[in-house]
Each structure stands twice: as C-alpha cells, then as structure tokens.
Amino acid sequence: MANERIFLSPPHMSGREQLYIDEAFETNWIAPLGPNVDAFEREIAEYTGAGGAAALSSGTAAIHIALRLLDVGPGDRVFCSTFTFVASANPVCYAGAEPVFIDSEPQTWNMSPEALERALREAELEGRLPKAVIVVHLYGQSARMKEILSLCSRYDVPVIEDAAESLGSTYEGKASGTHGKFGIYSFNGNKIITTSGGGMLVSDDEEALARARFLATQARDAAPHYQHSVMGYNYRLSNLLAGVGRAQLQVLDERVQARRAVFENYRAAFGGLKGVEFMPELPGTRSNRWLTTLTIDEEATGVRISDLLMALAADNIEARPLWKPLHLQPIFERASFYPHSETLCVSERLFQSGLCLPSGSSLTPEQQQRVIDRVHETMGTVAGNVR
Fold first, then answer.
1. Are 143 and 150 in contact (CB under 8 A)?
2. Confidence of residue 3 (pLDDT cuts 50, 70, 90)
3. What pTM value is reported for the model?
4. Residue 298 neighbours by CB under 8 Å, 6+ apart
C-alpha cells in the first residue's frame, strides 16, 4: 500500500520462535524459570564471549542489579552518559544515589573521555569518586572504551556497559558489553532482537552473576520455608520469553547485516549532500547500526529537523529526533553535568540537529525508497534508487 505505515524499528520474527514456545507449553514450563532461561543465558554468553549471563525482565533491571552488586546506595554518585534514554540513569535513582552526567564527544557521539577525565579528577579532589561509571553504546556504536577503561582503572572505578542498543557490535574484535565489570543488553520490542520485553546481565564474574540471579528472584534464602534476609526483586525473565530470545539470537548476525545494509543505502542516498553527516563508526569497531542516525546543518541545507519529521509523518513514516540529553530533562535539572569542553556541548548540538530514520531489518527496498524520496523532496535534492 502506498501509504502503509513504516515503523522506526519494528520486531522481526525469524519463524522459529513458536517452536520454543510450543515446547514450553508441551512440557508445562510456563513458570517464570525453566530450560529456555538456562539455555538463553548460556547462548548469550557463548555468542558474546562473556563468562556468564543472567536473564532478567529488562535492560533497566539489569542496570539496577549491576548497581546493587557494586553496593551503590544513598550518598553515592554514579557517572552516566547524558546522551541516552532515561532508563540508563533511572536505576541510579532507584538505588538512592546521585547521577552525574558526562557529555558526548564527536568521534562516537558517546561518552567523552575528556569530560570524564575532568569529572574524575574533580571528584578525587572532593573525596567523592563515583561508585560506578555507566557507559552507553548509543545506536549500536561503541564508546571509546580503551580510553574510558584506562581512566576508570586509574581511579579504581568499575564500569557498567549499557549495551542495550549494541548487541552484535564489536570493539577491537570483542563484543560490545564485555569490556567492563558488567554489561547489559535489552530485548525490548524495538531492539535488534527481541523477547517482547527482557534483558540480560553479562560478566566474567560468575559469583556476582549467581548473586544477581538470587537478588532477581526475590532474594529467597536456601530454607525449606519462605525466608528473606535481604531485599530482592521480581526481575527474572520468563521461560516463554526466553524461548523467543533463543530463536532471535540465532538470526542476530543476519539482523546486523540487514541493518548495516539499510545504513549503507541511506548513506549512498544522502552522504554526498552538503550539511548532512551520519553517525561515525570508530576505527576498530563494527556497529550493528541499530538505527541509522544523521545530523542536518540547518544553515547549509535550509531545512530544519522539524521540517523533515513533519514531512515524514505526513507520509505515515515514523522517524524521531535524537535523544534529548538527560542533563536537560526536568527530572534531572539539579544534576551535575560535564560538557565535552568549555566551548562545546556535543550532546546538545546533536539533539538540536539530528534524527533517526526507519532502520528495521525487515524494511523493504520499496519502503526505504519511500523514505529517501520524502527526505529528498523536503530538502529539494534529487533521489537515487535503493540497491
């Protein structure tokens, strides 16, 4: 249909999911845990090269559990990327701690090592080093982990990788999410693979992961009756949804390849236009290109982001602005923030000039051509054909 809705990043089923769901029904493993959960944890660990994994109800829950494992609590501070979805920072508040936001940098759009270094140096002088640093790998692109890990090691601060958007991406040949103390993935409905809702905590610390499973299952003591010595959470992934995840994981590499192809088509269509810049891919990394993101220089193009968003919406095409930085969110208006430099706030500039285009792995060439045509039409440029 000419005006059929084109979504930003819809779920893309492999066709094998029902097999795992049927097996769970046939064996009556409908309870929250079961064979699919155990297998999904093993398979994620094997795919990423992590020492182990704990399947949880969401990526947000995984961050919260990671903070709990690091004994983050009231009075503590946690440094966090500002250019991200609010779920990266909300668990800091769940723990009663204080988030401190770190700006992005131009090379990756992710956490600025320069801003992080200033923040850590000042925190040491104040005697208030953070209990953790949460680094987000935005839109599939890895942050500059070598520099960030070096800084955090110097100050003995553990790193949590929020790899919710970057499963399938690599940094220097190693899976995104496996460089820090803990890594988290999300299987929300719009992610590169989905379980409808779900997440995963990965680490090389098997003892910590065992503790994570305990805390995520209401922290029930090993007793013949219901006994609880510490506070726990109802954060485990269901056996049914884990079955969906197992089938999705089998096609992850195909999904990465498809999204990278979508990106390349957009880059071929718009990459030569004056004032248009795509999210960079840092040398030595491979992004899953979860979403194709770009910035538009209003002065060079004569077009505003709002013009493009309205034109796409008028043609029933879903597109979105880039994330509004967390230090600009009303809920965090009192939080501390460290810009990239004294003269440049990268995250604010990206928010003002960027957008996300439809990037699903099931996007057809015809649908992508429709997106390309609308963008060219709005910018007054000439469209080519999608390969």
1. no
2. confident
3. 0.96
4. 275, 304, 305, 353
